[in-house]
Write a structure and sequence with these properties.
Blueprint (H helix, E strand, L loop, with lengths): L1 H5 L8 E3 L2 E6 L2 E10 L2 E10 L2 E3 L7 H9 L5 E3 L5 H4 L2 H6 L4 E3 L4 H4 L7 H6 L9 E2 L4 E2 L4 E6 L8 E5 L4 E5 L10 E2 L4 H11 L6 E4 L3 E3 L2 H24 L4 H8 L5 H5 L4 E2 L1 H9 L2
Parallel strand pairs: 5-6, 6-7, 7-8, 12-14
Antiparallel strand pairs: 1-2, 2-3, 3-4, 4-5, 9-10, 10-11, 11-12, 13-16, 14-15
Helix pairs in contact: 7-8, 9-11
Organism: Desulfoscipio geothermicus DSM 3669
Protein name: Glyoxylase, beta-lactamase superfamily II
Pfam families: Lactamase_B
């Protein structure tokens, strides 16, 4: 949380709804909860802007999120990617007749019930099948147009949403923290760097992040994350050139093993960062 505090996370007009925190910043409604498991904790956030719901939160907090959804005027929803902490409550929204959009590549994934390892079912809850609509072009709400930006790396279907009028970007899981220390096995670090470079071409300041919340100095923090990954990549590739193994490089750069690595049986690990830098180029 120390790094996240540096990101100037804004909590204004905080309201507790049975564990759900609700705030409003620059016209965007933000709702978040904290998930804890065996010493690990993670904040997760969803956003509503002009009737558009961005991500749906984990089903572990379905009762709280559904209560919140019913208090809002939601016309449509969009998922930044298919992971269950972002799509967990999408099936309920779809049953209410609310259109749910996602990148076309993950529509088939969402039409099947998510098969998750046990720790993720405990951490986030499951995700039932539903039928989202494929994103084709930008998203239009009643009063605005949001640019859909393909931003893969964290997942193959990851997108970001750019609000030119407000100078803001909804980044899903692209940011999270300026110093990445652990990733999931399928993540592609070179792709993440490419997505960060792409977003940094846009004119914005505020970032609405799925796990850091509202980041007021968002463009600066995205640039800081990119610089960190680029510096790390340079070091990793140099050590690899000298003949160091992935395991040895990981032990040098990340001497401590994160608790989530043990909890997840290695699905989350710092070693995935090293391997991806070397193999995914």
């Amino acid at each position: 949380m120390h790094e996240l505090n540096k990101c100037s996370i804004i909590f204004w007009q905080v309201l507790l709804l049975r564990g759900l925190r609700v705030e409003k910043y620059n016209g965007v409604v933000c709702a978040g909860c904290t998930v804890k498991l065996l010493g690990s904790r993670l904040d997760t956030f969803i956003f509503i802007d002009d009737g558009l719901l961005i991500d749906t939160g984990p089903s572990r907090f379905a009762r709280e999120y559904i209560q919140f959804f019913r208090s809002q005027s939601i016309k449509l929803a969009v998922l930044t990617h298919f992971h269950e902490d972002h799509s967990g409550n999408a099936p309920w929204l779809a049953l209410q007749g609310i259109p749910v959009y996602i990148h076309p590549s993950s529509v088939p994934v969402c039409r099947r019930r998510a098969e998750l390892p046990l720790y993720r079912r405990f951490f986030w809850g499951g995700r039932d099948r539903f039928s989202p609509r494929p994103l084709n072009g930008d998203l239009e709400t009643e009063n605005k147009n949001l640019s859909v930006i393909e931003a893969p790396g964290h997942s193959f279907d990851h997108i970001a949403l750019y609000d030119r009028e407000k100078g803001a970007v909804f980044t899903g899981d692209l940011f999270v923290t300026p110093k990445t220390k652990i990733t999931m096995r399928p993540e592609n670090v070179p792709q993440i760097m490419g997505s960060l470079r792409l977003l940094l071409r846009y004119d914005f300041q505020t970032v609405y992040c799925g796990h850091a919340g509202v980041v007021k100095n968002g463009k600066e923090m995205l640039a800081r994350k990119l610089a960190h990954l680029e510096n790390m990549s340079g070091e990793v590739l140099e050590l690899h050139r000298r003949g160091w193994s992935i395991s040895a490089i990981n032990k040098k750069i990340f001497p401590k093993t994160a608790p989530l690595t043990y909890i997840s049986g290695g699905e989350w690990a710092s070693q995935h960062i090293i391997r991806s830098i070397i193999e995914d180029r």
